[in-house]
Design a protein that fits this description.
CATH topology of the largest domain in chain B: MetI-like fold
CATH superfamily of the largest domain in chain B: MetI-like
Number of strands of chain A: 11
Mean pLDDT of chain A: 88
Order of helices and strands of chain A: HEHEHEHHEEEHHEHHHHEHEEEHHHHHH
Number of helices of chain B: 14
Structural class of chain A: alpha+beta
Structural class of chain B: mainly alpha
Helix content of chain A: 40-55%
Helix content of chain B: over 70%
Low-confidence stretches of chain B: 1-12
Number of domains of chain A: 2
Distance between the termini of chain B: 13 Å
Shape of chain B: globular
CATH superfamily of the largest domain in chain A: Periplasmic binding protein-like II
Distance between the termini of chain A: 66 Å
Oligomer: heterodimer
Chain lengths: 432, 315
Amino acid sequence: MTHQRIWAGALGAALLAGALAGCSGGGNGGSGEADGPEEVTLRFSWWGSEVRHKALLEAIDLYMDNNPHVTIEPEYGGFDGYYQKLVTQFAGGTAPDLTPLSVDWIDELAVKSELVVDLYTLDEYIELDAFDADFLERYAVFDGKLAGLPMGANGMVTLYNREFLERFDIPEDTKWDWETIHEIGRRVHEEDPNAYLLGMFDYRTFLQPFVNQRTGNDWIVDDQTLGFDAAVVEEAFAYYQQLLDDGVMQPVEESSLYPDLAENLQWQEGNIGMMFTLASTIAKVKSYTPDLGVSMYPVPDDAKTSAVLVNPSNPLAVNKASRHPEEAAKFAGWLLTSPEAAAILKDVYSVPVVQANADQLVADGAIDPTVAEAVEIAMSNPGNPVKGLSNNQELNQIAQDLLERVAFKQLSPEEAAAEMTARLNEKLGSMQ
Amino acid sequence: MNNQPAAGASASPRLRLPRKRRAKGQRIGLLYISPWILGFIVLTLVPFVASLIYSFTDYSMVREQRFVGLANYIEMFTKDPDFYQSLRVTLLYVVMAVPAKLVVALLVAMLLNRTMRGMGIYRTIYYLPSILGGSVAVSVLWRFLFMREGMVNEVLSYLSIPALNWLGDPQLALFTITLLPVWEFGSSMVLFLAGLKQVPRELYEASRVDGAGKARAFFSITLPMLTPIVLFNLIMQMINAFQQFTAAFVITDGGPTKATYLYGLMLYDNAFQFFKMGYASAQSWVLFVIILAFTLILFKTSNRWAHYEDGGDGR
């Protein structure tokens, strides 16, 4: 019995010690030295590649050297599961002080749930003048609130394999529209049955912009109704099927295995000529296909809007529950506006939005010229920002599923268009 | 039978323990089992009840939740085509995967029931896929094996069989996904093996005397004697199959055209892609009821085909 008592006592003591340690751990970042600035600990979380991790860690070290009262705890990993983890942390009250947001999360996290600070309220700690005011207003402000500081500028372009274009005598300065894609793509496939001008489409790289160009509207307009009718979507679906039938695109039975075209073996072997993609993906595509060029996303002459997607690359947001929002804002401001931070980050978040830093990096050759050119091309003719419900993941999944069923010929363009408008209308009705 | 009086004799002094000592013994017993009880309450019971409550709300984790009554259930049954698609796909998957897995498990168990040198090593080797089988790594490997340019098609080409689009063809993708769990037959195999060891040798000897061949002995002795284990394996594997997630998530992500959109994947999408936790909770309760119904049906019908030496009433 004595043994049992000893064990029970030891277990109790261990639990108590653990609990006390836990309590005391929560008090860090509290009081500092009486005459110095308050000791602050910030948690900064992000996702990305190894290059991005290294650059951010180096920048954090530099900031902590210059601001010894600030400790920044980095939390980083891959993109898979990041959103799920972040939302769970917000729900549990354990979200980091600073986190980048993907643009399609902003509606949920910043607008509807108001979980992040409106950075306009912390403008005394951030040099907002360094940013292009129009860019901020257009892409990072939602309902009058600045949801985050853009870590870079991103845009949709046509990315092509130079060797492929040369092989099929396609001039690099071709002005692409949907008609030329069909004509040239058909010719390419006739010349070489193993070659395709394009890999595959999704709702974001094709359906939304194609329809928006025809209507001039947003995908979902502000009153939460569809910005298009069934006839326009039917036209888009019919065009897509035509491209597949004529061998302009790789058969969907093959391409659907690779959601990321850069990993498609046919692309890597040089049998697919081009793709529509965001500038931020160019570095990855280049690792498979080094000789790439960029041009404007297809815009027909009669388009009512270019519908060229321009995005802030991951706006950096401050958690509303942060105990030190001012210090978090100071760090975010320094990270995205100071020349020394820009020199460390280079193009890990595409091209910096602060023009002076972008110019300096281009001059120093620190930014991949293809990425810089891609952003410049996209920004020269941007479409309306894709915001709010136009970015809703559930609505977009419906569009994506139907696009896929058209490609597999399970639905005719007419049936798919009717089903899409009906399902989106129903879903929008239940969201109101 | 001879042990019973002894057992009774050992039980009676325990009953005569002083009340204080008995209570103390109970407390210590509870202390020992408390990690499990705590784990069960916090990690199983509370989420179980909470999910039922959430199923009547529009809980989204980050926004304020509202009580919506039966709206989630009504939407599921009347407005969500994905629900019926995933239900259809999942039922097909269960119907294909469970019997296939049990047949393979039984065949391998019979092979490993022989007496030969090094049998322990073979049993361990055949159990290994079950340890690895459900992992993401093996699912990724599966994806590469069954790619258009993968090893399976490579082998087929040597046999002059045309290459198949295992994962890109909506007609074939579910079948390919089904092959993965069949590979993880280990736990069922071990149970079958234990069952085979219990079959009295005399029955086989008697059947041989009566002139029965091997096939007749299998269908008239082995299989009937194994039916209680078949029942157990069937129920456990069916429950697992209804909840399958990893294979569809990693290998095909539910595609192409939702041909492999298993119920677990739909639940995941609603819960963790769209954060419709209330709706996903309702869907998980529907899955629970479906599994319960199938389990009850199997139990109720088992007295027609599962044979117990003691007649099934435990005597």
